Amino acid sequence: MRVGGFFATKRNAFFEFRVFNPNARSYLASSPASLHQTFAMARSREYKQRINEVDCGDFVPMIMSSTGGMGEDMQRAVKHLAKTLALKRNETYSKVAGLMRCQFSFALARAALLCLRGSRSLRCGFRLEAALDGPTDLALQEIGGDV
Question: Cys-Cys crosslink for 71: which of 7, 13, 36, 75, Cβ 3.0 to 4.6 Å?
Fold first, then answer.
């Protein structure tokens, strides 16, 4: 995501978001802090040099765990945004920062719920043909029948 004038006037900031599950089997041996750093370094290797040299911008890897923890770069960006919003709206920094962290947590919860239950839109509704391609007991459960 590109945001103009985030850190400096007439300079673009590029944000790349990644959410990971620290309770996954493959990550159990690592601490959440080391996972945040590992993912941030991987994203920085991929994008940072090109964005700095070609686009003359700043790159911020926005790494967040599914349990709500944020990486150092994401914390720095959220603090900067909270400070800017608090000055602009003439509110206290702590209230704005708390509200922003709460909004991130709710957005994360909504995204996880969407992944678990799927979309509620009518266009992406249930299709009997697609359900019958899989196991029949699963298809019957989806259409409300008994197994």
Answer: 36
Per-residue burial over 24-51, b = 16 or more CB atoms within 10 Å of its CB, e = otherwise: eeebeeeeeeebbbebbeebbeebbeeb
- The domain locations on the chain are 2-121
CA atoms 123, 127, 130, 136: torsion sign: positive
Query: d(Cα 9, Cα 17) in Å, to the nearest integer?
Result: 23
41-94 per-position pLDDT tens digit: 888 888 888 888 888 888 888 888 888 888 899 889 989 988 998 998 888 898
Looking up tokens 């991987």 gives 42
Cα(7)–Cα(68) distance, integer angstroms: 24
List pLDDT tens digits, range 82-103.
899 899 888 889 888 888 888 8
